[in-house]
Each structure stands twice: as structure tokens, then as C-alpha cells.
Design brief:
6 helices, 5-stranded parallel sheet, globular, alpha/beta
């Protein structure tokens, strides 16, 4: 099977860690590096990576906050975030997932495991984007609710005004009579509406 190409953003303040990860990935993927949380948020907007490998302990804002900031952006819908850290306790991993991470990899790790995770998440991101494109073409919309901006009632995209998050109940009421399938996941942090 041919590997799908993709863009990876490595976020770590350790030059030796970024060198090692870059060496593992650069033959198959386009790689950029950020050495702080602030730079990661800035580079993410311009570079639009498929996967972000995000260290937890960073100068300035930590990896958890970076993850939350990226998840609040409208273009992060299919982006995959893997927290990479020496922190091994369950509560550290759970905090990563709560912040919006898709996976958590404990340092030190084997190169094969990192490559396997990146391959899986690249494939998943490409599949999700392809399905979204087909759904939009066929008029089936899946609306992500990883936003703190209110949603426009006509197309589900953030309006960019005001504060707050549309709840599942509000979206069901807004689309009443047009809903085929609606589902809530977690504690209201993700919700999909299919019209």
C-alpha cells in the first residue's frame, strides 16, 4: 500500500528531541519545528499540518494550552494532535485527552511506534477530509463543535461574533424538522449534526 504524504509539526523545546523525531519522519513527511507553545500556534495557522507532535513541557504556554488553542480554531477539525511527553501518570495523559489530543506518546519511545502512529493518523485525516468533501458534495453536513464561537444557523460555520458554544440542544432546535441523525459525544465538547 502506498503511504500517504503529509505535513507534521513537531513542537518541543529540546533540540535533541526535535532532531531525533525529524530524522525518523523526514524521509516520508514534510516536517516543521516549533520550540515554544506560542510559535506552535503561529506556525499551525500558516503551515496547516496534518499532525502535531506536541510536547507537554514547553516554555511559555504549555502543551495542554497549545492543544486547547489549536482545537478552538475552525481549521483544526481533522487535525491530529499527539501529545509527546516524559510525563507517564494517568492524570497527565487524561489531561492531554481532555485538552483535545487524539493520542499520547510517552518518551522515550521506539521509532517504529512513532512512525506507526503517524501513518495511522495521516490515513485517518485523509479519510476524514475525503468523507467530508463527499458529504458536502452530496449535501450531508457534519458540523464539528470544537469552537467557542456561535454558529450560523444556515450552514453551521462559526459566525465570529459573540462568545459561548452552541449546545447540542440549541443545534437540534435550530435544525428542527431537518435532522436525520444527531449524536452527542462526551460532555458536550463534540457534536455532529447530519442534515
Amino acid at each position: 500500500m502506498k503511504e500517504l504524504s503529509g505535513k507534521v509539526l513537531i513542537v518541543d523545546d529540546s533540540k535533541s528531541a526535535t532532531r531525533a523525531i525529524r530524522k525518523i519522519l523526514e524521509q516520508d513527511y514534510i516536517v516543521k519545528i516549533a520550540d515554544s507553545g506560542e510559535k506552535a500556534v503561529e506556525i499551525n495557522k500558516k503551515y496547516d499540518p496534518d499532525i502535531i507532535l506536541l510536547d507537554v513541557a514547553l516554555p511559555g504556554i504549555d502543551g495542554y494550552e497549545v492543544c486547547r488553542k489549536i482545537r478552538s480554531e475552525s481549521n483544526s477539525r481533522f487535525k491530529k494532535i499527539i501529545m509527546v511527553s516524559v510525563r507517564t501518570l494517568l492524570n497527565h495523559r487524561l489531561e492531554g485527552y481532555t485538552a483535545g489530543a487524539d493520542d499520547y506518546l510517552v518518551k522515550p519511545f521506539e521509532a517504529e511506534e512513532l512512525l506507526a502512529k503517524v501513518r495511522v493518523f495521516i490515513r485517518l485525516r485523509h479519510t476524514e477530509k475525503e468523507l467530508d468533501s463527499l458529504n458536502r458534495k452530496w449535501g450531508i453536513f457534519s458540523i464539528p463543535f470544537f469552537t467557542s464561537k456561535p454558529l450560523s444557523a444556515d450552514d453551521g460555520r462559526p459566525t465570529g461574533t459573540g462568545l459561548g458554544m452552541a449546545s447540542a440542544k440549541e443545534m437540534i432546535e435550530a435544525y428542527q424538522g431537518k435532522i436525520r441523525v444527531a449524536s452527542e459525544k462526551g460532555k458536550g465538547t463534540e457534536f455532529s449534526l447530519y442534515l
